[in-house]
Amino acid sequence: MRDQLLAAYGDPSRRYHDTRHLAEVLARIDELRAAGADADPVAVALAAYFHDAVYDGERDAEERSAVWAEQALTGLVDDETVAEVARLVRLTETHDPEPDDLNGCVLSDADLAILAAGRERYDEYAAAVREEYSHLSDHDFRVGRHHVLDQLIDRESLFSTPYARRDWEDEARANIARELASLDALVLLG
């Protein structure tokens, strides 16, 4: 199962949602747990592995990833864990966990942590996302990306855990604002 998951993340068509992304999400989960976010280590780690197992730019990728998790994990872990992993994978579609959903908060924050990366890594991420949507025209991509970033920046907080709010929020907002300004400049040029 691990080899199948790593092969999916290693697909050459992936530019951002790849093995590097998976490793970064797992590292951020560890960082959040070390900071006191006492989420279920098994369910959250398994959900991290499955959260982008299917990634092809289509809207139902999270659902297909959750179904894969349900099928692959049944019989390997208890039914409660299977259900929790699938729920968490589905949650990554919105990254909007309830405040008391510690597992969901940790996975969502770890997945969104790229928004708080240093400038160079964030720019790599943004360029890689554009490559993943190379099938879209520049105009359609800019409109869609602007919509996604607007929804994020309009949130009261991008992150759900106290640690991420304290340590990642400002950098993430600065990165998003910079990317939005860049997208706006491209509209003016184009």
CATH superfamily: 3'5'-cyclic nucleotide phosphodiesterase, catalytic domain
% residues in beta strands:
under 5%
Whole-number average pLDDT?
A: 95
| Largest beta-sheet characterization | none
What is the number of domains? 1
What is the global morphology?
globular
Number of strands: 0
Order of helices and strands: HHHHHHHHHH
This entry's quaternary arrangement is single chain
Keywords:
Catalytic domain of cyclic nucleotide phosphodiesterase 4b2b, mainly alpha, 190 residues
Structure description:
With 190 residues, this protein is mostly helical. The chain has one domain: Catalytic domain of cyclic nucleotide phosphodiesterase 4b2b, CATH 1.10.1300.10. The chain is 67% helix and 0% strand. α2 packs across α6 (102-112).
Please sum up the structure shown.
It contains ten helices and no strands. By secondary structure, it is mainly alpha-helical.
